[in-house]
Write a structure and sequence with these properties.
Elements: H1 3-6, E1 21-27, H2 34-45, H3 49-62, E2 64-71, H4 72-88, E3 94-99
Antiparallel strand pairs: 1-2, 1-3
Helix pairs in contact: 2-3, 2-4
């Protein structure tokens, strides 16, 4: 037997990187009714009435509000779906996404 036969073989573990997270952001506008925004937040993001109202008020006062943080695909899907709900009703409701720092 040679020395190379006795040496243990090293196992290489692949580095798995966590997926980068993205924020879903509610952008305030002066036309979409507050009640409708709350309804969309409850339906799309499964918020309670109280949580949805707080997010809506924060967006109203500050201009924008982070709604939730997801992986990129889910964030984009939720933002698109929530924005589409507003568009179907004729409102300029807008949700966007951006990478979390």
């Amino acid at each position: 037997m040679s020395d190379t036969d006795l040496k243990p073989k090293t196992k290489v573990k692949p580095k798995v990187e966590k997926p980068r997270l993205h924020k879903v952001i509610l952008v305030n506008d002066d036309y979409t009714p507050r009640e409708f925004v709350v309804m969309v937040l409850k339906a799309e993001f499964r918020m309670s009435e109280d949580q949805a109202h707080k997010v809506m008020i924060t967006a109203h006062r500050r201009g924008v509000c982070v709604v939730a943080v997801f992986t990129r695909e889910i964030a984009e899907e939720k933002a698109t779906s929530a924005t589409d709900r507003g568009r179907k009703m004729g409102f300029p409701l807008l949700f966007t996404t951006e990478p979390e720092e």
